[in-house]
# Entry
Amino acid sequence: MKRVLVGMGAVAVAAAGVLVPWNDPALSFAAQAMPVTATAEAEPIEDLIYPWCSGVPVTLRPGQGGQAGYTSSHHPVFGQGAVQEYIEVGEDLPAGHPSTAAVALHECAHILQYRAYDYDASELESAMERVYPEGTASGVEHMADCISEVLGAVRTGQDGRGVPYSVGYGGTCDPAQLEASQRILAGQRA
# Structure
């Protein structure tokens, strides 16, 4: 079994458990994550990402960043057998803060990337590097920023009190990257 995490600019693999069959044809993408009871604090975030990451459990953790990942089992003959997706979002700012929304949409974008590339982290990374070659951040992270913008994230601005904020890995999304983001949103590869 493996656990793949993407967030804060890194990819890690570790042992973990598995809950949901990913290849059951009766399941839609929206139903592939095992729903959990949301805490009241996470509900606004789950509501925000619902149209794209329905059923993906959201956990709050210390800090302002985020992380998305999945656990999966691997059978030596049949390959990948089950996937459990999840999102973690920092709890230091209120759920309604624009930077919290941008982080949540960025992490949801990672889930959409995983799905489009059938949870193959190597293939995903290679494809995102082709779309965002020689950038200031990894292609996976930059493209999650671009996808989050298509989903409605506002990555820089001022909050309701006039305090400036900036979320993401920097860089702007060019038209080709925004087009690739649309394809990933449609469940296709970039």
